[in-house]
Design a protein that fits this description.
Oligomer: single chain
Order of helices and strands: EEHEEEEEEEEE
Shape: elongated
CATH class: Mainly Beta
Protein name: Outer membrane protein beta-barrel domain-containing protein
Structural class: mainly beta
Length: 233
């Protein structure tokens, strides 16, 4: 999330902590060994099968323009996805941690933050095949880290409203990862803002040789509406 220019504390450092909620869908391809295919998890599946989760962002910015941001989200779904290739149920545990360094460029009427850092993924997938020759449960997981780089932009529309956009790309641990988000912030109170945004987070990861029992593929896009409250201090 971004600081409103008129509300940043007049000290060396200013901080904001933002708990937030995401109503996501997950679409893509998951392959575990020789079994898998297209998988879709819609927001209804999320709420019906949600077991645990949480999302939190913490940012700090120095008067020099340099800063940092940490973002952590975790979502555990029980029996939360279905596949059109057969009677298959997929359980997901997905955790994503981002840690980036930021630098703010002040422009006329705009604020641009460039950033670079790491996005770490921790995925556990449990595939329960209910019918067919491969009946049974297959468990696969992986963790990897991607270097990322991107920018975020904001412009104040009024004393209380801002428009925000952010995007980044990366890869290394995965073949490719990307993130895009945009929306609005409402700075109604001196030290508190409300954020309403839409976010999409994609990754394409493969491990092992395709067609073998050790192969693991996680090529998905997690997207949905995001709402959070930022507390500045």
């Amino acid at each position: 999330m971004l600081y409103p220019q008129s509300l940043v504390a007049q000290e060396d450092w200013a901080f904001v902590i933002t708990p937030y909620l995401l109503a996501p869908s997950i679409d893509g391809t998951t392959t575990l060994g020789r079994v898998g295919g297209d998988v879709s998890v819609d927001p209804g599946d999320i709420w019906d099968n949600f077991e645990a989760g949480g999302m939190l962002r913490f940012e700090g910015r120095h008067d020099s323009g340099f800063g940092f941001a940490l973002d952590y989200s975790v979502m555990n779904l029980g029996n939360g996805a279905s596949s059109p290739i057969g009677d298959i149920r997929v359980d997901y545990d997905q955790a994503v941690l981002e840690a980036v360094a930021t630098y703010r460029l002040d422009g006329t009427g705009n604020q641009i933050d460039i950033y670079a850092g790491l996005r770490h993924w921790d995925i556990d997938t449990h595939l329960n095949v209910l019918t067919g020759p491969a009946t049974g449960q297959i468990n696969r997981g992986a963790s990897w880290t991607d270097p990322i780089a991107g920018l975020r932009w904001q412009r104040r529309l009024s004393p209380q409203w801002r428009v925000l956009m952010q995007g980044d790309v990366g890869g290394g641990g995965s073949d490719f990862t990307w993130n895009a988000m945009g929306g609005f912030a409402y700075d109604r109170w001196e030290n508190t803002s409300v954020f309403m945004m839409y976010r999409a987070l994609g990754v394409d990861y493969e491990e092992g040789s395709r067609g073998t029992s050790s192969f693991f593929e996680y090529d998905t896009v997690t997207q949905g509406l995001l709402a959070g409250v930022g507390f500045r201090f």
